[in-house]
Amino acid sequence: MSTRTTANSHHVVIIGAGFGGLETVHRLAGAPVRITLIDRRNHHLFQPLLYQVATASLAPSEIAWPIRQLLRKRLDVTTLLASVEAIDKDARRVRLDDGSTVDFDTLVLATGARHAYFGHDDWEPFAPGLKTLEDATAIRGRILLAFERAEREADEHKLAALMTFVIVGAGPTGVELAGTIAELARSTLPADFRHIDTRKARIVLIEAGPRALPALREDLSAYAKRSLERLGVEVELGQAVTECTGEGVVYGGKTQAAATVIWAAGVQASPAAQWLDAPADRVGRLKVAPDLTAPGHPEIFAIGDAAIVARPDGRPVPGIAPAAKQEGAYVAQAIRARLAGEAAPPPFRYKHAGDLATIGKRRAVIDFGWIQLRGTLAWWLWGFAHIYFLIGVRNRLSVALNWLWIYARDQRSARLITQRGEAEGPSP
Amino acid sequence: MSTRTTANSHHVVIIGAGFGGLETVHRLAGAPVRITLIDRRNHHLFQPLLYQVATASLAPSEIAWPIRQLLRKRLDVTTLLASVEAIDKDARRVRLDDGSTVDFDTLVLATGARHAYFGHDDWEPFAPGLKTLEDATAIRGRILLAFERAEREADEHKLAALMTFVIVGAGPTGVELAGTIAELARSTLPADFRHIDTRKARIVLIEAGPRALPALREDLSAYAKRSLERLGVEVELGQAVTECTGEGVVYGGKTQAAATVIWAAGVQASPAAQWLDAPADRVGRLKVAPDLTAPGHPEIFAIGDAAIVARPDGRPVPGIAPAAKQEGAYVAQAIRARLAGEAAPPPFRYKHAGDLATIGKRRAVIDFGWIQLRGTLAWWLWGFAHIYFLIGVRNRLSVALNWLWIYARDQRSARLITQRGEAEGPSP
Question: A135 and chain B: CB distance < 8 Å anywhere?
């Protein structure tokens, strides 16, 4: 396709420019391949901080980068903004939304996941999930609009529902959302309203499992729960949500009226396995071999949330950014070895660096395995680590500036309600 | 309405939290009134920099502030997020979108304007205008998407249309948009694409009148035109657009195919005059008396783009931010005088500080009346002036940081295509 690379060199097509796909591209620098990177969005997203966009702390452009700009110096890479419609694995061909096709020698599926409702897709309009920038700005609008509507509401029951925020799922995203919404209500907003006391907002975090942050050690889970409760979050463990409507949720037999429900409970992999007609687990992740290839197709790799990889002890590799990056690096190594005629690298082996989550603006929990941290020190470490992993000096400065303002003055500047429909007339 | 102010004090209702409405609020600080400020958006917008959001230079939250946050210390002010449906001027009552009503003693209409198509409202889908944050992010998406589609386009004619950007109207917004799009295409984007040469993009600025920036002196207009042409903008003066479709525009008998058309040609005032059933000019601006009151209703003021005010020499007060602010200050002064039982202030007299516009990132024109500036010095002055007028230290730092990056490195970080529909599945 490209006029600037050798047309007959080995063509690697990578679908998805998340952490896994981009890492593959980076690790293939200088390899004797030409690369086509396909994503249906024009930006790479730093998902670990997406909850901060949803809670008005950061602007979308602070955690997203144009994919093209990241790869502008890589003349071996062609970036395409396109959706994949189908894959013909025998013809080694990807079909795009405009009907055009891209042939590949090697294919890397790094297509990620989206939130899932365990067979209750009809809940989505009432309980939006958080995977994209559009999700985040939509949730931000819902949260802010609930307070706005509460300010004007005379009916007591409606007011109570508007002042109740339910988060379903107590993994890192759910915990971080609950903690930040609590701080928004307790610290940022109180002085702004005249009729309501935003400090009286109820934040209810519902988790079907027995504890918050189940990936962490039990004492850290207990600490996270206590910290959330100190921020005023009601933590409801061991309670599955059985109903979700415009009025609120039903969980553990109880009905909770709530105008705002956010879904942080489950993911559903991309249709990568369907495209290949290959075996998948119950949430759609492609079951790959220990070398991350699709069964019977050594030229097709799947990584990140699109794949399910078993570890030697039988547990799956977790669906987090470091895992996707390690898998991306492994795939690049495997491709390089093949093209050089060398032996394939040993099966992929995941190295778990640790788990972490913040609870509000002064506490965090970090589990490195060999050491556990919690409290303020962990929170500072979390902050520096995240700024370090952001791409580019400008974004680091910009995020640091915003966090400084939140830390020192409780001001969250990205408190914008947008997307209210563009066709409105000029009335205020 | 408010429980924190004296219910029987004089109630001033202000509709619209733009430059005029906010200035009225600020100048009424400490006056014996309670204030209700109604806006259908939750944010005050710094419209002079809106074109920078549309061209991926700034993030929306850098030029918008939550109205509540700006007024958090003003316990005499209640802010309502609501649309106005009607005004009963005899009952002195405003009716809102939820059916509730707000009674006023004094009403200030500061409801602004929206772009207008001179009787061709059907052109709007093809040629969006720029008045709100949603407009700006939608235009940003269109510009970036045109380059993305061009990168994948094989057909020569379609490619030419995708690489053509038409801006209708050569006032400050049109000139600034054209100059910035030219720089985006010439400086920011070239290295990012593999198939197209973005430097070959055509930017066509069409103006029905005889010159660009008609509010400025003729020599500055000529300088602006030359500067635009040096950036590669085709400036077509004295040519009215007579047709606007999904294929492009027709102007001066010529057909110009273009995938992206932006409307910067005219404004239409808010329906304030209709609400009052009062005389308006041809673009809907309420004809106010020299003291800015509605005819026959001394308790109703109209300011900013919602009103048309004649100057002593017959020319109208221009629809720019400083004019709206002066009018807002005047109205506050008039309200204070009435409540104090003092004589009304003399008729409103507009003081014109000057006109200015930037052309790309190193040139600007400024006309102060007593002195004219152009070139790099004017550009620096323009930049410092705009940073000075931004509200809050954080936003000033943040905008300065972004401009520094654009100036030094040609990187525009807010290059995000969003709002592509949220219901899509997880494929990339």
Answer: yes
